[in-house]
């Protein structure tokens, strides 16, 4: 599943530069994650880097409305980075 930044976000700017998929951008009030680009760092790291660097606990969570398996996240990664070779 894609990740979701909750309203607990303090706009500290820590998560955005850490996202290897450039899925995090500033929204109207807080940072937002583009679910089409978020692979939960599958293909890059073992755990989501945005969650690791966020100074506020439970601010970046799995989005329960966008359930994806690890296989689906891997496929999204492959298409984003190697789609021209498929």
TrEMBL record:
Keywords: 4Fe-4S, Electron transport, Iron, Iron-sulfur, Metal-binding, Repeat, Transport. One of its GO terms (cellular component) is cytoplasm. GO terms for molecular function: 4 iron, 4 sulfur cluster binding; metal ion binding. SUPFAM superfamilies: 4Fe-4S ferredoxins. It comes from the Bacteria. Gene3D superfamilies: 3.30.70.20. This is YfhL family 4Fe-4S dicluster ferredoxin. Residues 1-29 form the 4Fe-4S ferredoxin-type domain. The lineage of its organism: Bacteria, Pseudomonadati, Pseudomonadota, Gammaproteobacteria, Enterobacterales.
């Amino acid at each position: 599943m894609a990740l979701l930044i909750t309203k607990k976000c303090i706009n500290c700017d820590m998560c955005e530069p850490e996202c290897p998929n450039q899925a995090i951008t500033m929204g109207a009030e807080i940072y937002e994650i583009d679910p089409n680009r978020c692979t939960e760092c599958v293909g890059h790291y073992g755990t989501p880097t945005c969650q690791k660097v966020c100074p506020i606990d439970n601010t970046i969570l799995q989005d329960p409305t966008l359930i994806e398996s690890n296989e689906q996240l891997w496929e999204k990664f492959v298409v984003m980075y190697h789609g021209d070779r498929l």
